[in-house]
Specification:
This protein is an alpha/beta fold. The protein folds into 2 domains: 98 residues, Glycogen Phosphorylase B (Rossmann fold); 177 residues, Glycogen Phosphorylase B (Rossmann fold, 3-Layer(aba) Sandwich), CATH 3.40.50.2000. 40% of the residues lie in helices and 14% in strands. It contains 13 helices and 10 strands. A 6-stranded parallel beta sheet has the order 7-6-5-8-9-10, sandwiched between helices. Strands 1-2-3-4 form a 4-stranded parallel beta sheet, with helices on both faces. Strand 6, helix 6 and strand 7 form a beta-alpha-beta unit. The longest helix has 14 residues. The two termini are 28 Å apart.
Amino acid sequence: VKPAALIGFGGYPTLPPVAAAILRGVPVCVHEQNAVLGRVNRLVAPHVEAIASTFDKPKFLKARDTGKLVLTGNPVRDAVIAQAGAPYDAPVAGGEIRLLVFGGSQGARVMSDIVPAALARLPEEMRKRLRVVQQARPEDVERVGEVYAQAGIAVELNSFFDDMPERIAACHLVVGRSGASTVSELGVIGRPSILVPLPHSLDNDQKANAEKLANAGAAWMIEQKDFTEDAFAQRIEQLFAAPSGLEAAAAAAKRQGQPNAVRDLADLVEALGRGEYRALRNGKHKEVAGQDGANLEFATGGA
């Protein structure tokens, strides 16, 4: 059976089927979730028809392949899309300060080590206003809770939250890592963040993701080597002393969001399968059946 098209999402397990499709003349699209082109996607880029991407100009994309780039975004869950319309309400003087802290699906020890101790250093008036929701590893929950209790800070602690999109929408500021899913969800929902990239991620992709949001004014990046109690406490105090900056960052994050990624990626692959991709790429939408692909955003460059 010869498929009409094939899409690969990077990673070494995708290499054999992608290579087989290329050898058989099957149109191939690869999708890159991060701001750095992954190693397998980098390897096959010269041989595929299209490169779907979350970010424009991903690192390591060769100039010869820029014409294949299509900005689809990174697909997110329906629960995230459901929060896309939730407005951002900046904290008001004397009101609650809602902080959401997490470090990926399993939490991160550095968040448990630094964040509670840093928040405990804040002025008492600010500590009383804090409402913290923090994901921590099961073995860290008790000790983290004790730090918050001693500081008089209201906190909800758990090793896992199954309603994270709702919690992102409800907070004033997110503190977390900068994996592909996290930065995509922050953009769709439109929330400001302090991002601490995983320091040893492959090709430093988390740092590249965080830099994209920081450069857009949507986030503040602190590398883990600089993520100290003093540095974090100072940043938090500065941000909540001037909430207009948080409001501006929320708006900037929203501008980075791509809520139609599922539709656009599906349209791209279907166009490849029907042999209509090049017509779309060249702006000849009248030659394409229906409206599928009419909203695709192509990078500049040749087909």
